[in-house]
Amino acid sequence: MAVLIIVLGVFYFTTNETLPKGVQGKEADELAHKMLKTLNYEAFKNTELITWSFRDNHFYKWHKQENIVSVSWGENQVILYTESPEKSEVFVNNIKVKNSALITKATHFFNNDSFWLVAPYKVFDPGTERRIVTHQNKKALLVSYTSGGSTPGDSYLWILDENGLPTSYKMWTKIIPIGGVSATWEAWKKTSAGIQLPTKHTLSLFGMELNMENVAASNPEADELATKILAAIKHENYKKTTHLSWSFGGRRFYEWNKKEHIVMVSWDSIRVILQPNNLDKSKVFFNKIEQEIAEPKIVTRALNSFNNDSFWLVAPHKLFENGIIRNQVEVAKKDALKVTYTTGGTTPGDSYIWLLDSNGMPMSYLMNVKSMKMVEVPATWENWITTESGTLLPTSHAFANGNTLSMGEVKGSK
């Protein structure tokens, strides 16, 4: 025992660090915002469901928007109302009981274990203070919690990579008497809700590992609403549609071999046989005469036009494509679907809020397009037709300024 005490004492005096002071202000907040942008904080705010287990001992199902979390360990389960603990329910061996001690324990477990999952998203929570600290000749973010959680007064020094992604932090906490113990934040997982979550931590304290198992984040209510839209517009028939044709405001004309993803795009005296997946194979015609070498600027223009103009025809059919985040929001006391494009197309980062009728049919959307400085600009989706292939497509759109957009003679076939 004496030897152990000596070893621990030596470890304490050789590793204990004092809490750095740092500087509060704009620079610290900017670094915090950089981290949040990298992690997709906007998606985190709207995430509906987060599930995980902590060291394979505590199991969680967190309905984030409702502030309700199922906490399970051993034979115990607590349905914890984080904002109203008095409403919480306790089950032991699947039998409902009254046990306030288990509610308190579940609260403590959740505060601790969720922090190891989502702490980077909490840097602007009420009661937090942010400071810039120079650590190993780089800027690091010191976050101190003056209130909230189970251990107010704790501080964490976030070490970030060049993109703002947390790679580790140093801790000054009540539960660990040694100041400056570090823990990695690694094995980040990109979830279907669009946020990133860690699945592993390794502490400098004797190499202890904290594993987060079965980590997932999703938006099931939004996905259900998106599925309702697809049913309304006969998406199953859209998937079987092999050819589409339409025009865009009478200015550009399209024939899309959807099966092979080859598009004929024409405007003025120009016709482009566009191959979006292999642009080098695209062909350009002037006055029906093929160019020996397809001019790259013309091919790029055709591609950008197709990305934009096809969106106005088939956007509702693309709700579950890769790189899309779906959130359910409320507009005028009705459920609406917010769709954010993180990749693909011409302007990734844009979002659209779909407004629906009672059957899930898209009637209009509100556009948020950063490149055009649009903020919830409305546009209708109307005059839907059932194509020969059995899917539904719009033939016109109207805007708040009185302008209209015709999609011409829309056709779809198998």
Would you kindly provide a brief summary of this structure?
By secondary structure, the chain is α+β, with helices and mostly antiparallel strands. 22% of the residues lie in helices and 39% in strands.
How would you characterize this protein structure?
The protein has helices at residues 2-15, 26-39, 41-46, 100-118, 220-232, 235-240, 296-314, and strands at 23-24, 49-54, 58-63, 68-73, 76-81, 89-92, 95-97, 128-135, 138-145, 155-160, 166-172, 181-184, 189-190, 196-197, 200-202, 209-218, 243-248, 252-257, 262-267, 270-274, 283-286, 289-290, 324-331, 334-341, 351-356, 362-369, 374-380, 385-386, 392-393, 396-398, 404-406, 411-413. The chain has 414 residues and is an alpha+beta fold. It has 2 domains: 20-218, no CATH class; 220-413, outer membrane lipoprotein receptor (LolB), chain A. An 8-stranded antiparallel sheet has the order 7-6-5-4-3-2-16-15, covered by helices on one side. A hairpin with a 7-residue loop joins β5 and β6. The longest helix has 19 residues, at 100-118. The N and C termini lie far apart (80 Å).
